Amino acid sequence: MDLIKKIWTARKLILVVMIPLSLLPLPLIHPCSESSCAYVLIVTAVYWVSEAVPLGAAALVPAFLYPLFGVLKSSEVASEYFKDTTLLLMGVICLAASIEKWNLHKRIALRMVMIAGAKPGMLVLGFMCCTVFLSMWLSNTSTTAMVMPIAEAVLQQLICTGIADSLEDSVTVDTQDEESDKEENKEPSKNHLELLDRKHNIPAPPKKPKIRRDSQYPTNRDHMICKCLSLSITYAATIGGLITITGTSTNLIFAEQFNNRYPEAKVINFGTWFIFSLPIALIMLMLTWIWLHCLFLGSVISSQFQRDLLSQQETLYFDVVTNIMIFLVVHSYPEVVTGIFFILMTVLWFTREPGFVPGWTSLFEKTDATVSVLLGFLLFLIPARKPWPSAFSSESKGDDDDEEEEDPLAPMITWKDFQRLMPWEIVILVGGGYALAAGCKVSGLSMWIGRQLEPMSGLPPWAVTLLACLLVSAVTEFASNPATLTVFLPILSALSETLHINPLHTLIPATMCVSFGVMLPVGNPPNAIVFSYGHVQISDMVKAGFGVNLIGVFVVMLAIMTWGEPLFHLSEFPTWALMRNITGSL
Q: pTM for this one?
């Protein structure tokens, strides 16, 4: 028994050692470039899926195995680890650091909460809209980490003011079987205290009513509201990340690998991706909200037609939210600067190459990365204080850090702010994916895989795409999203070329569906963040996430078969893919 425990404890180390040794006969018995590349690809993929080593460390495997097996030179592999996409990400992270530092995300979230109202169903929708908007520009993980403390504070206030109890008395809600609420009493999350900071002198929310002995929630209705709002935030962060190229790392991986494999294809840019994905996000947002509402809060129709009996409770609720909004005014100048940069970056991205009119790239041959890096660099130079005297300058000084009080020219962000948010592991992971793709291309492995998939040529394009979506969405529940997409993109590209299907017909849906790992806490970091607050159990995530997964696959398939076809000309096999196919076969 002790031996089994020791083996289980050392299982990752055993896997790291045994996988390369067990696969070593492949390049030794068949000494060719295809088998050597396949060996490197399988070892890296197993490391990624099993997470036996950190994802960033596993991404470095091609850097030393490709030169050892003669697939690529060391200099060629090294050049794959830093691409144009890395600069794009760095510029976006600079803006994200400024947004988080100067509380612009809190102002947006709280404003949405005030617009939505205190009714639980509308409150969930308001938070989802806010999270979707933030996740378009920030990483899904950062957005969830920013919004969840605000949601936690609102949930505590919602319960304390008795709004949920009033609703429970006036509405009969058909929910699922009663959840097992036998959790030990625990202190409310301390994260929401960030919004009620003592230095702002904001009064703490009133004490909770007497709770049930076996639960931290006064009623089962309160627990359902907490579950619904918590899960809605992680799902909304995933949906928002689909909208822009920079919204999530998997979009960046797809864009760079696609542009590397098909350099003649000038079809994927910020504008075309936004036009295609925005309707997907809007439809998914509404369907997901309806699904969560029916699952945890009951029928949407009956809830919306009930009489509003919450005037006193809503007044108290809005007083607290308004107080927080008032005390956020102290950082108004940096917020305005950040907002201007945010709007400017978005406008420049849209107008670079809109498609229907000539963009500014007709004058300057620049990319999205040029815009983001330039604006991100300026954030390190622009002072965080007004350059002109103000009657309120003395009031605003009290809320700055001591270091900034001593330095009137302190910039909007510092290198420490940037370092804290910069996901270097993702950068290396993306680089490892580029290196693998380059090896598959040079060695001819991608063409060999495509030839093995020729029996699928009898399937229609929509069936191939559906199978790819279902397979990717299933694998990503247990493996990281970037690693899953990095493994599948070369395979799907080779499959599309072999079947003479427009590669975008399979690659775009697969890229979208790889983000739908929402059924387990290990599916993606936002799931883990929401799960850590203790409002939901794994069974809740599985039930709700399964529905969201089906909704996502359905909407993506609808999009690729309707407005995606004329946008990307999916009904024809493009010349840029034909040129790639001919070149690869030579």
A: 0.63
